[in-house]
């Protein structure tokens, strides 16, 4: 007996389970025949799926349903970053109880990509300059030392320019000095480019961090570079929607503020916001509408349930 779902949802589940040839025969029942129709949509990408979910939420809310009476349910908590960003873009109140969407922008490389964009708008942003070192293949203690030295130089150049010129002066070979100058000029030009163009230059252009991935992979013989490239590709999809880096950075700040707001909202039961949670953390019948995402093989059901290792 299932106490967490309506008759329609359990009947829908029974119809799917019936097609499993390896099952232990079973039929789920519900204690009360409360009706709640089931609908599904086919999404082509996570971006498309997020747009469908947000459209449905907006329609339900327009029809009078409070946000807190809807829930977005996921099997994998790592899958909700794109959806959460759409909530922020649409300015719909949301509380992410999975907290897994945070890890993407906390990744070392993503933070450094964003730092390069920040520097192009404000070349005196000391915190962003500190983060940039890894992208330029600088050892952290060496980079920190260069920054500290550059802060004592008094001239009409920005802190970033002083740091890069100081780094170039420490190179013995002319081609190394020229490479650093090219990187400096390229980063300063980012302010006139789209976020996608900036990322492409960081990946394979003037900065070319993927070249270092090849070098590292040759040393360690791991698949780490492929995992990072997938991360970079995901970031590129995310930032393509923004025309300028100013637009993206404003969104990024809103994203960070939303996360801070959510922590406060969790302590206020009267807040009208859409909860995002895993299917295991939801009771089920406490919501009038549930939107389940990520319904594709090896995510829902998980690969272990399919007998795969």
Defining traits:
single chain; 309 residues; mainly alpha; four-stranded parallel beta sheet; elongated
Model description:
The chain has helices at 7-17, 46-62, 81-90, 102-105, 108-121, 126-132, 140-150, 159-169, 174-189, 195-204, 209-220, 224-239, 245-265, and strands spanning 70-74, 94-96, 274-278, 289-293. The mean pLDDT is 88. The radius of gyration is 25 Å and the shape is elongated. The two termini are 30 Å apart. Helices cover 52% and strands 6% of the residues. A 4-stranded parallel sheet has the order 2-3-1-4. It has 309 residues and is mostly helical.
Largest sheet entry: 4 strands, parallel
Radius of gyration: 25 Å
The percent range for helix content is 40-55%
What is the CA-CA span between the terminal residues?
30 Å
Order of helices and strands: HHEHEHHHHHHHHHHEE
Strand order within the widest sheet?
2-3-1-4
Q: Which class do the helix and strand fractions yield?
A: mainly alpha
Shape: elongated
Please tally the β strands and state the result: 4
- The stretches of 5 or more residues where confidence is low (pLDDT under 50) are none
């Amino acid at each position: 007996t299932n106490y967490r779902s309506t008759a329609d949802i359990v009947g829908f589940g029974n119809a799917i389970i019936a097609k499993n040839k390896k099952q232990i025969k079973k039929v789920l029942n519900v204690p009360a025949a409360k009706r709640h129709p089931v609908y599904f949509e086919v999404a082509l990408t996570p971006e498309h799926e997020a747009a469908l979910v947000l459209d449905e939420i907006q329609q339900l809310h327009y029809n009078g349903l409070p946000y807190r009476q809807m829930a977005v349910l996921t099997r994998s908590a790592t899958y909700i970053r794109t959806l959460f960003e759409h909530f922020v873009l649409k300015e719909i109140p949301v509380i992410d109880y999975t907290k897994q969407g945070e890890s993407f922008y906390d990744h070392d490389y993503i933070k450094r990509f964003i730092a390069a964009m920040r520097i192009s708008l404000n070349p005196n942003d000391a915190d962003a300059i500190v983060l940039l070192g890894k992208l330029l293949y600088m050892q952290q203690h060496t980079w920190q030392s260069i920054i500290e030295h550059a802060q004592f130089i008094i001239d009409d150049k920005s802190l970033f320019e002083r740091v890069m010129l100081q780094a170039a002066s420490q190179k013995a070979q002319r081609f190394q000095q020229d490479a650093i100058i090219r990187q400096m000029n390229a980063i300063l030009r980012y302010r006139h480019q789209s976020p996608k163009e900036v990322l492409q230059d960081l990946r394979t252009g003037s900065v070319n961090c993927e070249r270092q991935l090849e070098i590292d992979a040759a040393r360690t013989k791991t698949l780490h570079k492929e995992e990072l490239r997938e991360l970079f590709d995901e970031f590129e999809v995310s930032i393509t929607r923004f025309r300028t880096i100013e637009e993206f950075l404003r969104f990024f700040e809103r994203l960070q503020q939303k996360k801070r707001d959510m922590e406060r909202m969790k302590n206020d039961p009267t807040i009208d916001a859409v909860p995002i949670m895993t299917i295991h953390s939801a009771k089920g019948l406490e919501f009038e509408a549930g939107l389940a995402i990520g319904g594709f093989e090896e995510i829902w059901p998980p690969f272990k349930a399919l007998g795969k290792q």
